[in-house]
Design goal:
By secondary structure, the protein is an alpha+beta fold. It contains five helices and 15 strands. Strands 8-9-10-11-12-7-13-14 form an eight-stranded mixed β-sheet. Strands 5-6-4-1-15 form a five-stranded antiparallel β-sheet, with helices on one face. It is globular, with a radius of gyration of 18 Å. It starts with a strand and ends with a strand.
Length: 261
């Protein structure tokens, strides 16, 4: 399929969510592109990430700490901790469903945010917030629905693209942290990739000095995007990191058309 051109926009400066005392700037794909589904695959494959209705990548002038990561699913071998997780959760029923709003999903989402994001601006969502954040105007989204005796325990939100799945968000019953349902959901997405015969699970950004991102390198083998190419990640080798500021923007952040390769 031929590559399509898409305008990119530079966002405003904000406080970095991952590293202290740093500013962050994001580059956003044009949300008004006439055919967003046709470019979404290209964007994810070029290191972009979806958050709600926005598709973005970091474009911080003095920092390239955010590294896009994807897991090579067919070569993945569960570790001992993964096997324990699967055994612990062997009583659960997993289903793959088209993304949609339901009162049941929203209730679990609301309880999860109230527990995990107290006073963070996300802890009192409305149904429209659920739809805006989790449903996808750019392409096809699946909910990995996890239940015990019919009761909903967890939902992993994942976008389907041509060469894999892109993990977007997971929310689960906050009273069941001992089940490690977030990790369980990653393993289910790996299984779904293999079932669909697609090679990659895109895990978003890894930040070397951010502890809450450490879990992403537990899933191997994986590749990291250096700004031009996806390269096999060697945990003990020094990784070349591309310049994320190559944003195809004209000076002062004015958008210009750019082909996403």
């Amino acid at each position: 399929m031929a590559h399509q051109r898409i305008k990119l926009y530079q966002g405003s400066v904000s406080e970095c969510s991952y590293l202290e005392s740093r500013d962050a700037v994001n580059i956003y794909a044009d949300p008004h592109h006439p055919d967003p589904k046709s470019v979404y695959n290209q964007l994810i494959q070029r290191g972009f990430r979806r958050s709600g209705e926005f598709v973005y990548r970091p474009g911080c002038p003095q920092c390239n700490a955010c590294v896009p990561v994807r897991l090579i699913c067919k070569e993945f071998t569960p570790r001992r901790t993964d096997r324990r997780n699967l055994k612990k959760n062997s009583d659960l029923v997993v289903d793959f469903r088209p993304a949609q709003y339901t009162d049941e999903y929203f209730d679990l989402y609301r309880r999860y945010l109230s527990d995990r994001h107290t006073d963070g601006g996300m802890d009192n969502p409305e149904p429209a917030d659920f739809e805006r954040f989790l449903l996808n105007p750019w392409g096809e989204t699946l909910f990995i629905d996890v239940r015990l005796n019919g009761k909903l325990l967890s939902v992993a939100v994942t976008d389907s693209i041509t060469d894999g799945l892109s993990a977007v968000y997971t929310f689960f019953d906050p009273e069941l942290q001992q089940r490690a349902l977030g990790r369980f959901s990653i393993l289910q997405q790996v299984d779904l990739c293999n079932l669909m015969s697609v090679p990659y699970l895109y895990l978003g950004y890894w930040v070397n000095q951010c502890r809450k991102m450490d879990y992403k390198t537990d899933y191997r083998p994986q590749e990291h995007f250096d700004g031009q190419y996806w390269r096999r990640f060697e945990p003990h080798a020094r990784q070349p990191v591309g310049d994320p500021t190559n944003s195809n923007l004209t000076p002062k952040g004015r958008p210009s058309g750019s082909q996403v390769a």
